[in-house]
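Tokens for chain A. Residues wanted.
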């Protein structure tokens, strides 16, 4: 299975809660795992500005390209933004595009990055300068590789940017299962939203997910993008759903089984993960990738 990753994802964010080291740590963990022979690590190339323009507005892309984000833009983005970061995020968008193309060819692929679901067409938000999930779907549609797609967003935070981008598109089914009383405050409607109560924990979460997955697959997608955030974890600093690692592994199995059972290509992106100990996030997200390798 192709696994897309670049050491350039490890942008330096002093004092920020986003552990950009996790990408390297997960890649290292996979390389040392008993399943290493089943994985081919591939370094992506940057998405083009034209690719991004399939999703984002020209005004916003001009700002990103020229380093002209305003202090308000940067406050909404919640990153200590510097113009030099732009190539890393173009690369991350390219990683999801390449992984989506590989999934269409091979049946499945993973991206050790991406899942930047809070980016809207016209602005970045919540650590997400560009919406790689939407860019990957739009580039595959634009190349006529697919018409229909679905997003299964299991990050603890609602997939607001993705929901809004595809709001009026009947060909893309968006599903988000998240903590209701958490960021973002404004949650535009996905095709299917499940906003769980604080501390929902494994049984409640898995029951809700199990009930929702058939509805996602009924939308007859030709590609599914799984936004596999690790932040529903009980040790996460930004999440409050209190899932265990075993619960998260079962979550991954449910998603993989539902998509694979329907014979639909599956691409995984990592999205959030802010455990107090980064090794917990690495454990959870390595397991997600390894779940794909199981027959
Ligand atoms: Zn999140």
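Reply:
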């Amino acid at each position: 299975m192709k696994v897309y990753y670049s050491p350039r994802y490890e942008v330096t964010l002093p004092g920020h809660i986003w552990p950009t080291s996790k990408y390297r740590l997960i890649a290292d963990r996979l390389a040392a795992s008993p399943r290493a022979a089943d994985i081919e690590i591939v370094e992506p190339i940057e998405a083009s500005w034209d690719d991004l323009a399939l999703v984002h507005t020209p005004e916003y892309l001009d700002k990103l390209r020229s380093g002209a984000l305003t202090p308000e833009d940067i406050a909404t983005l919640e990153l200590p933004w510097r113009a030099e970061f732009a190539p890393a995020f173009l690369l991350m968008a390219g990683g999801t595009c390449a992984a989506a193309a590989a999934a269409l060819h091979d049946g499945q692929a993973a991206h050790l990055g991406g899942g930047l679901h809070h980016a809207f067409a016209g602005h970045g938000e919540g650590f997400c300068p560009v919406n790689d999930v939407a860019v990957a779907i739009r580039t595959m549609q634009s190349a006529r590789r697919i018409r229909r797609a679905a997003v299964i967003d299991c990050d603890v935070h609602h997939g607001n940017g993705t929901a809004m981008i595809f709001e009026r598109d009947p060909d893309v089914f968006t599903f988000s299962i998240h903590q209701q009383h958490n960021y973002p405050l404004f949650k535009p409607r996905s095709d299917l939203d499940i906003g769980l109560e604080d501390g929902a924990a494994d049984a409640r979460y898995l029951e809700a997910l199990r009930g929702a997955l058939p509805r996602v697959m009924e939308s007859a997608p030709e590609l599914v993008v799984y936004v596999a955030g690790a932040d529903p974890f009980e040790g996460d600093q930004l999440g409050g759903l209190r899932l265990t690692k075993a619960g998260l592994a079962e979550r991954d199995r449910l998603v993989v089984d539902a998509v694979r059972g329907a014979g639909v290509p599956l691409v995984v992106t990592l999205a959030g993960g802010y455990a107090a100990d980064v090794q917990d996030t690495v454990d959870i997200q390595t397991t997600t990738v390894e779940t794909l390798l199981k027959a």
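The pocket of zinc ion is lined by residues 155-157, 229, 231, 271-272 (CB under 6 Å). The first helix runs from residue 22 to 31.
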